[in-house]
């Protein structure tokens, strides 16, 4: 059996993906900062932290908790933060409807009023 070195890994839409081999203990806020911070589409109210443990050497047991990630990172709220351990998965969600608002195209050239037009599934073109 080969033991893997401790590693924290994140693959979330609202931060740059990556991994580190921690030299010391980290918390969720530090992990987000190391990933380069939040993207504009990050849902800051809460994030999910899933921890995995091996029970009796026979099965994997997971535990999910909620982290007030915006408070932990942006307000340095230690009560909102949580310590991480090797194998933890931090999921920062994307704001609902973000992809819909991103579907836009500039209307330029020989037009009376150049603008960015958004495509909405419900209503077709919407002017911004």
Report on this model:
The protein is mainly β and 128 residues long. It has 2 domains: 8-96, Outer membrane lipoprotein wza domain like (Outer membrane lipoprotein wza fold like); 97-128, no CATH class. The chain is built from 3 helices and 8 strands. The chain has helices spanning 28-34, 69-74, 98-101, and strands at 8-10, 18-20, 42-55, 59-67, 89-94, 104-107, 115-120, 124-127. It has a 3-stranded antiparallel sheet.
Give the SSE map:
Elements: E1 8-10, E2 18-20, H1 28-34, E3 42-55, E4 59-67, H2 69-74, E5 89-94, H3 98-101, E6 104-107, E7 115-120, E8 124-127
Antiparallel strand pairs: 1-2, 3-4, 3-5, 6-7, 7-8
Strand content: 35-45%
Helix segment tally: 3
Order of strands, widest sheet? 4-3-5
**Which CATH class of the largest domain?**
Alpha Beta
Shape: elongated
Please report the distance between the alpha carbons of the first and last residues. Answer: 58 Å
Helix content: 10-25%
Mean pLDDT across all residues, rounded?
Answer: 76
What summary fits the major beta sheet? 3 strands, antiparallel
Pattern of helices and strands: EEHEEHEHEEE
Task: Provide a short characterization of the protein structure.
The protein has 3 helices and 8 strands, in the order E-E-H-E-E-H-E-H-E-E-E. The protein has 128 residues and is mainly β.
Question: Main traits of this protein?
Answer:
mainly beta; 38% strand; three-stranded antiparallel beta sheet; elongated; 2 domains; single chain; 128 residues; Outer membrane lipoprotein wza fold like
């Amino acid at each position: 059996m080969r033991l893997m070195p401790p590693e924290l890994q994140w693959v979330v839409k609202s931060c740059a993906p990556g991994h580190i081999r921690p030299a010391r203990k980290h918390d969720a806020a530090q992990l987000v900062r190391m990933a380069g911070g939040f993207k504009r589409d990050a849902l800051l109210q809460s994030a999910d932290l899933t921890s995995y443990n091996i029970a009796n050497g026979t099965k994997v047991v997971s535990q999910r908790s909620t982290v007030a990630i915006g408070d932990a990172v942006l307000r340095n709220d230690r009560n909102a933060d949580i310590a991480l351990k090797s194998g933890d998965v931090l999921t920062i969600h994307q704001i609902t409807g973000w992809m819909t608002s991103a579907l836009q195209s500039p209307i330029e050239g020989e037009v009376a009023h150049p603008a960015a037009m958004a495509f909405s599934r419900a209503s077709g073109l919407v002017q911004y």
